[in-house]
Amino acid sequence: MSGTEEPKKERFAPKEPVALNPPKNDLISREHLAKCDGTNEGYPTLVGIKGDVFDVSGKETYAPGKGYHVFAGKEPNRALGMSSLKPEDCVSDYSTLSETETKTLNDWHTFFSKRYNIVGHLQPENESRI
Q1: How far is CA 122 from CA 4, 13, 85, in A?
Q2: Whole-number Å distance between alpha carbons of 85 and 94
Q3: Which of 55, 61, 66, 80 has the highest Cβ tally under 10 A?
Q4: Strands (E), 1-130
């Protein structure tokens, strides 16, 4: 074994370093998130994963008509865990995911957290605003 080992690349690190803002703690309602799907002028494009809301504005793959637009304005936990692009899988509840699928979902969360700003936390599904 030689003493010139490559430094280990951090898992899911982007090719080019991304300067991220500190995560925000703002509470984001599901109604607001739904408007942030890239089709409403004046609204950012957001994706929720496991309660954290990421700003993916300006990322072409989340634009209307593009492959990952199905995730925009939603918290597609189940779909991400299943590696699914089906709209019916884009739901928050991931309790039915297998251990492997849950790991995939966690990997997606890590992937997003290294690339996109966290702009807030999603209001729990069973909580209504007063």
Answers
A1: 45, 25, 21
A2: 15
A3: 80
A4: 27-28, 46-49, 52-55, 117-122
